[in-house]
Amino acid sequence: MTMTPLRQRMSDDLHLRNYSDRTVKAYLRCVRNFALHFGKSPDELGPAHIREYQLYLVKQKQCSWAVFNQTVCALRFFYNTTHDHLRDRASSFGSDQPRGRRH
């Protein structure tokens, strides 16, 4: 599968922070599903869309807590890390530290 530059950037950001391959795949899937729900790139969506999607997951899709929580974490990572760095490229040496491996 060919990755868009934005998807590749998020994947790279996750790997730089030592997230597991399974978590990377899950987070990318969550952000992809969010974008597909609205038919737009996630960088064109904002807080109102996130809230609407969360309500959709809970009320209409009736997803499990695990799926809901993973989606929230994935979107938080995308908007706080990947998306912010795209807007402010000067912070490429910010204070983000790699995560330690969980065993």
Task: Characterise this structure.
With 103 residues, the chain is mainly alpha-helical. The chain has a single domain (5-85), classed as DNA polymerase, domain 1 (Orthogonal Bundle), CATH 1.10.150. 65% of the residues lie in helices and 0% in strands. The chain has 4 helices and no strands. It has helices at residues 5-16, 21-38, 47-60, 65-87. Helix 1 runs antiparallel to helix 2 and helix 2 (21-38) crosses helix 4 (65-87). The longest helix is centred in the last third of the chain and has 23 residues, at 65-87. The radius of gyration is 14 Å and the shape is globular. The N and C termini lie far apart (30 Å). Mean pLDDT is 87; it is low at 89-97.
What are the main properties of this structure?
65% helix, 4 helices, single chain, DNA polymerase, domain 1, 103 residues, mainly alpha
Topology:
Blueprint: H1 5-16, H2 21-38, H3 47-60, H4 65-87
Helix pairs in contact: 1-2, 1-4, 2-4
Short description:
The protein has about 100 residues and is mostly helical. It contains four helices and no strands.
* Helical/strand content category: mainly alpha
- In percent terms, what proportion of residues is strand? under 5%
CATH topology: DNA polymerase, domain 1
Q: Note the overall shape.
A: globular
Sketch the topology as an H/E string, one letter per element.
HHHH
What is the CATH first-level class name?
A: Mainly Alpha
Please compute the radius of gyration using only Cα atoms.
14 Å
Q: In the CATH hierarchy, what is the architecture at level 2?
A: Orthogonal Bundle
Number of DSSP strand runs: 0
CATH H level: which superfamily? Tyrosine recombinase, N-terminal domain
On the 0-100 scale, what is the average pLDDT? 87
User: Helicity, in percent?
Assistant: 55-70%
Straight-line distance between termini: 30 Å
Count of helical stretches:
4
Number of domains: 1
Unreliable stretches: 89-97
Largest sheet: none
